[in-house]
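Researcher: For the record, we're logging two predictions in this thread. I'll number them. Prediction 1 follows.
Model: Prediction 1, sequence and structure:
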Amino acid sequence: MRILIYSYNYHPEPIGIAPLMTELAEGLVKKGHNVRVVTAMPWYPNSEIAPEYQGKLYLTENCNGVKIQRSFVRITRERNFKNRALFEISFVFLSFFQVLKGSRPDVIFLTIPGLPVCVSAAILSWLYRTPIVLNLQDILPDAAVHVGLIRNPKMIRLFTWLEKFAYKTARKISVISDGFTENLLEKKVPKEKIIEIPNWVDINFIKPLEKEDNYFRKENNLDDKFVVLYSGNIALTQPLEILIDAAVKLNHLDNLAVVIVGKQEALERLEKYSCGKKATNVILKPFQPRHKLPEMLAAANVGMVMQKHNVISFNMPSKIQVLLASGRAIIASVPTNGTAAKAIEKSGGGLVIPPEDSQALASAIEHLYRNPQLVKSLGKRGREYAKKVYNFEFILDRYEELLLSMKKPKKKLNELL
């Protein structure tokens, strides 16, 4: 089957949608499918095109059997409407012509965010007479409006129209949690269009490892420390200042270290905040190479998931599956009625506490600090749950089944006569 994956993000971007789309594409190739990916030059999470990809309008690569067709995007670290519009327009326009530089696909697998690319995907679907499978990793504009990223009424109306258009033109819509399904049903999306397939984790790559001789512990003088680790996006919806406040409240625990891993720009802001709070037990580190991720996770005793109280209920951070697979206990400072809280409670792999409450967070950390057996049992239950529910091989089979169902059956000879 000829599969086109249309995504803003792909390898070598280390976090977010890119690792998911990379694993999906390469997994489908191993199953015998012809897969090409149309994507942007690598730009996330640093909001700048990676040095080795700069100065190029188009580039085609082949990696692990996947044909990757990249196009330039106009990206800058300065966040405003004009720059976001130029980013979207550059990708929508330039990527469209990349799709045309290849054979007709049997199916277009379009991942969201962002929304404007659904227009070019719909045109391609019409030209090729090819169905679209829409993969929702977030629901826009709901999530952006909810946290104040989009406030202009005209922009909200435009993105609402694009959302409806994307749902209408897709043959099937794959969603990552039941919260997404509820949201779409409220918007009158036909139930038969929706299929729930959770995000996955490669349990053979992300797995429990020993803390002894751990490079991350050695590099950061963490041997004999009880390590609380947050690694991932640091944006409007992740209140990392609360984690620093909690660390300050735990200064009496001599061998506690709170480690925050993220992009450099965000760490600079947190460094100022941390210094102002005299948080001597906080360590800030830039993102690590992806091949070192399992060992970095293994350096922790506890992994953190953090959201603000106003995060929309269906938000489901992909780091949950990763932390569960790593066999580390989780503390989730998240809205208790949200999808993230429900997933962690169902897994049995962590504690859920109210968001943006530094005292509750400090108490939860100290509780685990003083109960090593609980830490061990939470990690073990989380790992078992990840193996059972988020196993990549199982979920890959479900995606393959979905994509194969989109392929038109060949007409028999007697039907043509």
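Researcher: Logged. Prediction 2.
Model: Prediction 2, sequence and structure:
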Amino acid sequence: MDPTVLRQPRRRLLGATILMLAFTLPASAQDAPAPAASTSQVTNLEAVTVSGEQPGPGLWRVSKGDHVMWVLGTLSPLPDRMQWKTNDVEQTIASSQEVLGPPSIALKPKTNFFGKLFLLPSLIGARKNPDGQKLQQVVPAPDYARWLTLKQQYIGSDRGIEEWRPIFAAVELYDKAIKRHGMTASGGVKDTVRNLAKKHNVKFVTARYTMLVEQPRDAVKTFKSSPMDDRECFGRTLDTVERDLGRITERANAWATGDIDLLRSLPMNDQREACIAAVTEAGFAKQLGFSDVKQKAEGIWMEAAEQALNANAQTFAMLPMEELLSPHGLIARLKAKGYQVEAPDGSDAEGAAPAQP
């Protein structure tokens, strides 16, 4: 099979998808604060992403008896011009009875087609701050000064973004910054795996928690008028863009080249946890019951994984890389249930969380 070019158009975030926003950001912190900037991190801003044909990471092996599940760790962002050599992955998928996707969350408005159509006008201004406030009015002055510098560097003179909520402005800045550094948020890995499963007629199982929004118009209206404490998310994103793009590039390259030891050594402490908290701790999100959806999605994945391991001789699965490397991740939870776990380097462990500075 020819190597697959990992590219996919960036999806734009609109109004009600704010409830999903935090979960689309890059790899999360493992319950650790962001480390202070170091000279090496600043120097690494000039790091270059790998290109051309790359093997990607090896697969984790989870087993019980003669039933096995091979797990691919996914990562965001990834090198934009990498070609993922998928021969081994394709062979594994072709020999499997099932492919299990990563935990995911979906919002479903409880309305018909015309109701969804009439929702569109109400989504237009959902990214804006309530009461017409400008970004300068809602974030700390030092952060706004940093924002102006980074905005000019990566976005340019876009006046409209000054009306956006901090979390939306942060995501836009991050997306533009990683693109400038030769990376892409999606990488196309999940779509590639899904397409390979389809090619070989292997069942693809989606581990998705679907949240039904009973009154979608009221939900959008509530969101547009509700405050959200997303200033920390904004500040942490500025930190990431200012000083951590070198480390993020190094991490993306480690995934591409299959360097698991390097992935273990690089702390995954980007801004995602702060941005998740900004969403889940907001009053409107609590009213909608969004505070525990991540745990529910993980529970659905665990149940599906155990069912697959019991029913199938071989299963192929995907998980975010931090769920493989963290001692508190989903692979560690499977190991605690008695499943055998073997990392790509042959070690009998789910991996170790990187030491935090």
